[in-house]
């Protein structure tokens, strides 16, 4: 009996994912991705120069770093690519966490801000704000706040439409997602085409296909603060999120206030989706793929899924963005098109797999 | 723990599913709810474990209004094994069972050594020690049901609500589960399909028919051929079993010829 017990306890350690090690590895990978990705593009900069340029901006370190780079390289790295790559990290993390939160909300891993039309909803209200100044009384954050409102309205709409007799019907969910996203895309197009200026067409393309090309330092703060706050809220509630995956009824018997938790999830998802889409347009399937891949490695416990999918999502988007600017260089592909090209098949595979189970 | 329910009613889209349900469960009771399919057994239980909110009526747990408690509090008092236990995500068995500890946890509490011991003990109790690392998705229906029971055990409540807990189980596990629940010494309210099981374990029975409580009493009072015919519309032979000393029910299907019935009558 005693021997059996020790055997069990070693087994316990073996199969328990070593979270500190996983997080450390992913963080290192994220850091390396940032440095390498900054260097890659139509004009490439060596990773060592990238690291030096970045370090030279750190107060007190400036004087110790030998200047081995040209001014052009500095402009590209600091002014263009660094904010762009960081935005990629933030957008990837944000979309992945939004996906995770929405999947807990609808209790299905086919949920994603893009598939359920949330991105389109956010884009529609954002275009409204941008071209007609509808929400201009909100100041600098008008775009983000209007995108948040669009996201929130769409989530609530799709969620209510797909509940049949108090139960979430998955066919209903996917179909209402498709319908709502078509409506919202159409609205975006109508708004941009009837826009008073020529910028309209260009912007419509931006919202519909998603790109990080316009990244500026000023774009980073709001989405970054948002994902940190939302991550904390989600992590604090990880037990409730786990319980929700067992179903509303079971979650209630485990002490979860289901209605309140669902409201929190809707709020958090809309906040992240809104602030992200305001700066990057609609980038699809990241929120679908990353949480699923994370779960394959570490199981479904949200305490582990959330940090892992945030890092993994960031890394993925950074590298897809590298591809977006390399594939047809010096021209650029919209990032959203690339994620759709391999995200779509992934979705179909998940759908097939779901049917089998 | 004592549960008092009075005049509980619940309607779906203006159609009353259950009406004026009044029932009592005293401390240490093992109370069964029996009745045909669709008679409202599950709906009563769902209203009691707060998956549904009743339209009218009251439920008091030790004198405290159940519907005014926080969900967290009611979850430390009531453990529940519901009917639907489909989980579309990859969880390990121990993770599911550990969720039974949630109601005892504050916002920033981690899992303690004690929690893990409780989880392991619960798994041992349902005969699944050593399977804690298995993927819940890959278990058989019966194993899933037992894991959900282990989760309710990990909640360490004095009161268990069970909705046909042995639905998917073979007779070995049916007896094992009910023996286990009985041995815990907690108060139990359970919907039970199998009348022989109900006779064996319950000390009181409520009979549901068409959304109403039609009768209540001890198994000996309830499980008579007359009442069984009244509830299910089938003939049955009931005897006190010499070993269990409980009513033992044999159903007599229509296809059985009337000779057999005459034989029975003569015997009596």
Question: Brief description of this entry?
Answer:
With about 350 residues, chain A is mostly helical.
Summarize the structure in words.
The complex is a heterodimer of chains A (357) and B (268). Chain A has 357 residues and is mostly helical. Chain A has one domain (22-356): ABC transporter involved in vitamin B12 uptake, BtuC. Helices cover 74% and strands 1% of the residues of chain A. A two-stranded antiparallel sheet of chain A has the order 1-2. In chain A, helix 2 packs parallel to helix 14, helix 4 (71-106) crosses helix 14 and helix 5 (118-132) packs antiparallel against helix 6 (142-161). Chain B is of the alpha/beta class. Chain B has 10 helices and 12 strands. A 6-stranded mixed sheet of chain B has the order 6-7-8-3-9-10, with helices on both faces. In chain B, strand 1 and strand 2 (15-25) form a beta hairpin. In chain B, helix 4 packs across helix 5. The longest helix of chain B is centred in the middle third of the chain and has 14 residues, at 141-154. At the A-B interface, helix 1, helix 10 and helix 11 of A face helix 2 and strand 6 of B.
CATH names the topology of chain A as ABC transporter involved in vitamin B12 uptake, BtuC
Q: Radius of gyration of chain A over alpha carbons?
A: 21 Å
* Assembly level: heterodimer
> What is the helix tally of chain B?
10
Give me the strand/helix succession of chain B: EEEHEEHEHHHEHEHEEHHEEH
Largest sheet of chain A: 2 strands, antiparallel
What's the name of the CATH homologous superfamily of chain A?
ABC transporter involved in vitamin B12 uptake, BtuC
What sequence of helices (H) and strands (E) makes up the elements of chain A? HHHHHHEEHHHHHHHHH
Shape of chain B: globular
Query: Which pair of chains forms the biggest interface, and how many residues does each contribute?
Result: A-B, 33 and 40 residues
What summary fits the major beta sheet of chain B? 6 strands, mixed
In the predicted model, the low-confidence regions of chain B spanning at least 5 consecutive residues are: none
Class computed from helices, strands and strand pairing of chain B: alpha/beta
What is the tally of helical segments of chain A?
A: 15
Termini separation of chain B comes to: 42 Å
Major sheet: arrangement of strands of chain B = 6-7-8-3-9-10
User: Could you list the spans of chain A in which at least 5 consecutive residues all have pLDDT below 50?
Assistant: 1-14
The portion of residues assigned to helices of chain B is: 25-40%
